[in-house]
Amino acid sequence: MNSVLRSKLFFLIFILIPFVFMLGACTEKSDVTLQKETDSTEKKNEEASDDQATLVLKNGIVYTMEEDQPIAEAVAVKDGEIQFVGSSSDAEKYVGDDTEVIDLEGKMVSPGFIDGHTHPPGIWTSKLFEVELTSLNTHEDYLEAVADFQKKNPNTEIILGGGWKYGPYEQSDGTNLGPTKEELDEIVPDIPVILVSIDRHAVWANSKAFELAGIEDNTPNPKGGEIVRNPDGSPRGVVREEGDLFNKVLDMAPPLTKEQRKEAMLKYMEEANSFGITGVQNIGGVEIWEEIRQEGKLTMRVAGAPFIDPEMKPEDAVQQILGDRETYNSDWIGVNTAKIFADGVTEAATALYLEPYGSGANKGHDHHGDTSWGTDTLNEMVAALDKEGVQAHIHAIGDGAVNMSLDAYEFAANANGKRDSRHTITHISAIRDSEISRMAKMNVIASMQPFWFYKDQYYDAEKAMLGEERALAMYPTREMWDAGVMIASSSDYPPTPDYRPLNAIETGVTRNSPYPEEQDTDLVRNIDQALIVNEMLQSYTKNVAYQIFRENDLGSLKIGKKADMVVLGEDLTKIEPKNISETSIVYTIVDGKIVYKGK
User: Fold this and answer.
1) Helix or strand or coil: residue 163?
2) Which of helix, strand or coil describes residue 165?
3) Which among 194, 197, 140 has a CA at the least distance from the CA of 496?
4) pLDDT in tens, 340-363
5) What pLDDT sits at residue 242?
6) Are 382 and 337 in contact (CB under 8 A)?
7) Cα 123 from chain centroid?
8) Which tens digit of pLDDT belongs to each residue from 444-480?
9) N or C: which end of the chain has fewer CB within 10 A?
10) What are residue 205's DSSP bridge partners?
């Protein structure tokens, strides 16, 4: 190679080497940039996946029951909890490929309804396995149903059932002794028949059942109850607040199997979901609910309230509740409440009133009702429960029983010191003005049944027993609400055979019948005591959640709370109140999953 060529080659190498290094550096930089861009995209996708909701409801009217954001348009749900509440446009960022999106098209969303006092499975046991009288209204229908049941079950050794009403047996003078055993004898004379009344506070039985129970002319009345008698003193056929009189007869019947009881409970739950119910205060035990939960089939929250008997020792009652509280303690089922009866019911003249019953009760001029509890015994029981942080839930129909219950709560507070007890009185048909202010001051919750607020079948009995003036004045909810008493709504199903919350909400607003065939008739009871729609909604959602100590995760629609909701066909606050009961349930959502879809 000559010197000139060599010089040119060196020159080219000298010039090109930097470009080679620059090209390599650029290539390396390009690879790093590409990797960074890839990492960034993957991170964004991962973040989007983290935010992606499982369910989004949009373009609706969402009543949150939260003061700082009372109304919204959309809700996003992830992993059973509320992820977002706000506008429909802002909800879009939570929508991913796997998100179920429901365009509500203006429909209403509310927190799921919680029934604050109910007895599942209610009449489903009778519907499936016994004589079901709840849907019937005449004496002749009752007898026909019993005869039909025996015809279909010719080998049965005992006939059980319930749901009969006092209405068909009211006499012209206002008295009501109920049906007779001889009328059942004509249908079924040779095996026992025991039929529980619709309010669960009386039984109607035939002569064979009376014979086997050992009830004769000289049998004394049970404690806190009554054997209804004919004018000649013989047992008529009805025993009120019957206690243990018929237990040995009931023991003759083969008990329902666990599977039968579970079948009835599942039927109840399915129906309750269709009514928009997402939770209940279950009066009684929760063992079957726990089995359903373990099977992965539970679609409502359950707060249990086992019964406490006057014969129980306070320490035994406390241990029972504490044991249940430890056993049942999940997002789905909890127990920390004791159910206590302070009195009976007005229609049986066993509710406890401060003023005596009228002549319609056929009890003389100084009958005030009955209670199974002595004052000291009740005080000591409530104080023992309260000391261990157990909530008391006391049945009190008459104003005398309400007074007795408040005295017990006051005794407990003085004995143990004031705490966040949330003790409750349920029913409260009658209450004096002075007790309303006392109840509010003590922060005692009123678990009330709006289904009873109009002139229904119970009103007829109350009027006959107490007189029109006292009957009309019952359930003073406007006065109670304005005084600061927290009202938590409930059904007391099956004594109330209908437990649809929308019917209760309408009745609470109109104080009239929610049923289309009755809505245009004058069945209004004390319209001055009506609540407004938003108050009734609150009473069926937020207030019951507070009653059962679940206000931190239930009862309103807020980020972090359980996604338990109901979608309604119309905005209840914008329609005629008498149309509330006809409003459709479009979806019931529990734990972020649709458990009922309307047709």
Assistant:
1) strand
2) coil
3) 197
4) 999 999 988 999 999 999 998 988
5) 61
6) no
7) 15
8) 999 999 999 999 988 988 999 999 999 999 999 999 9
9) C
10) 194
- Map tokens 């749901």 to a residue: 163
**Assigned token pair, 33:** 């940039």
Q: How far apart are CA 464 and CA 508, in angstroms?
A: 23
CA 477/CA 526 separation, integer angstroms: 10
Residue 151 burial (CB < 10 Å; 0-12/13-18/19+)? exposed
| Enclosing H/E stretch for 141 | helix 139-152
User: ω before 497 within 30° of 0 (cis)?
Assistant: no
> What is the average pLDDT across 570-589?
97
Q: Token pair of 207, please?
A: 């002569």
32, amino acid identity: V
CA 98, 99, 103, 107 torsion: positive or negative? positive
Q: Name the residue with tokens 């055979």.
A: 497
Token pair for 187:
């249908």
The amino acid at residue 196 is V
Written as six digits, the tokens of 416 are 């143990």
Segment holding 339, helix H or strand E: strand 337-341
**Structure-token pair, residue 320:** 């029972």
Q: 3-state class of 333 per DSSP?
A: strand
- 566 - beta bridge partners? 110, 588
**Rounded CA gap, 392 and 119, in Å?**
17
Coil, strand, or helix at residue 392? strand
Residue 38 is which amino acid? Answer: T
Query: Would you say 568 and 107 are in contact if contact means Cβ atoms under 8 Å apart?
Result: yes
Question: Strands 159-164, 131-132: parallel, antiparallel or unpaired by DSSP?
Answer: parallel
Token digits for 64? Answer: 């949150």
Residue 221's CB is within 10 A of a number of other CB atoms, namely 17
For 366, the token pair is: 């100084």
Q: Cα dist. 459→54, 200, 474 in Å?
A: 48, 17, 9
Averaged pLDDT for residues 406-414 = 98
